[in-house]
Every structure is written in structure tokens, then in C-alpha cells.
Amino acid sequence: MKSTAPIMLMLLALFISGFDFTKHSIPVDEIISGGPPKDGIPSLTEPKFVTAEKAKFLKEKDRVIGVVFDGHAKAYPIKILNWHEAVNDVTGKIKFLVTW
Amino acid sequence: MLLYDRQTESLWSQIKREAVTGPMTGTKIKTLPSTLTTWKKWKKRHPDTLVLSTDTGYIRDYSRDPYESYYSSPFRFFGFRGKVGPELPEKELVLGVDIGAEKKAYPLSVLKKIKTPFEDTISGQKITIHFDSDTEEAFATDKEKNRVPGVLTYWYVWNAFHPDTTVFKGE
After folding, report:
1. Which of A59, A72, A80 sits opposite B52 (nearest CB)?
2. Residue ranges of domains in chain A
3. pLDDT tens digit string along B44-55?
């Protein structure tokens, strides 16, 4: 009975999340759902941008994650990242992910 | 927080910067320099900056912060099972730096009280710690003035991932 318990837990985790945990480096029974289902917090894959002048939704005190690649500056407002957590983006030849 | 990739459906840990389940398990992610600061400061530094648009294709109330009560409460995120050392209050913000084997947490409460930037040593490497009390922007750079990987997070989060971390106490 003792030896089957972890296997049962693994199957349960697989069933819940839909992800294959066969290969793993952390205890999979400690991976728990935060509530929203898969893609419930949707990442952005085709982000659109506006100029600083047009970003009226931002207040001076709002926080942003800023990057500069190839001399091009881009800002990712935390108030948007809170709802998506990940933005897949590209600047010139650099493909990158911004996560929060 | 875990993210998945659409090609292999591996799960990736944000703080560990590597995949922790699935075919990509153990694969590290390359970190690129970024800054967490205020819009005022960023705009001033980069007037030509582009800004991620609220036109995301999704209907969300971007004026509302879904985590508001989490910031102000003394409590951890629900479901947290890690151990937390008594060195700092659990929700104290720290700059966590891990280059090489050594990990170090720089509490923002300490950085606010001392003169910055200042030099420190981690894993035998000289680094400089920068802090701006206006924006709470905190980061570390190496001898070549390049940013070294670091994360701004709560003490309990940093300590759960790095039980062997030391805590910077000031001079």
C-alpha cells in the first residue's frame, strides 16, 4: 500500500492538469493549481504597442518592466502583466519572454 | 509560478529559471537584462519607448489590480508549503541575487537606510548593488557594468527556493 501511494498521486496530478509529469525535477504532488485552468491566465503572443504619448492609461507611479534591445526601448506595464503574466515578444532578431 | 511551453508542454519555474517537468526538465533559460521601475522614470529615461497596449485581444479590467489584497496583507500566497527562515518578515521585499553557488538576499528596508550603490562580493565575484528609493528599483551589476540575474520578490518566496541564502545586514 505504501509504495502505490506516490503513483496514485502522480496519476491524479496528471489527470488534474493535463500535463505529463513522467519526467520531473521537483515533487509533482507539490504542484498545485492556483485556481484558473490552463490558459485561464492567457499569455500574450502577438503584443501590440503604443507610443509613450498615447499610453494615457498609465499613471506616473505605475510600475513597468522595461527592456532595451538593439537600442529599442519597450515597457510592459504591471497592470497588464498581472492579468497575463507572460508576453512573447520579438525585437529585431531577439525573441524573448517577459514574465511577471 | 509555473509557465508551460506550447511545443513540449513542459512546465517552467519562473524563479528557478529552468524547466521542472516534461521533456525539457533541467533546461535553463537565458536571462536578459530588464528593469522594474515606475512609468515616470522609464519615460524620462527613454522618451521614445514603446508601451504594451491594453488592446490585447482579451477583455480584462486593466485598471483593477487582482492582487491588491495580497500586497497589503501579511500573509503568503495560498497553498504555500515551503519553509521560511526567521531572518526577515515573510512579506519583506528583497533583491535576490544568485550567481555561482552563493545566494544573497538584499532587503529593501536595509537598502533604504544605507548609501547606494555599494560593492559586495558573491561567489568570489565583485558586484555592485544599486537602489533608487524613489522607485524602489533594485539591481546588481558585475565588473563590466552588466546586469547580473536578480529578482525582486518577497522574502518567503526567495527563501523557499534558496534555503541556503544569506541575508545582507548592511555595513
Report:
1. A80
2. 1-35, 42-100
3. 999 999 999 999
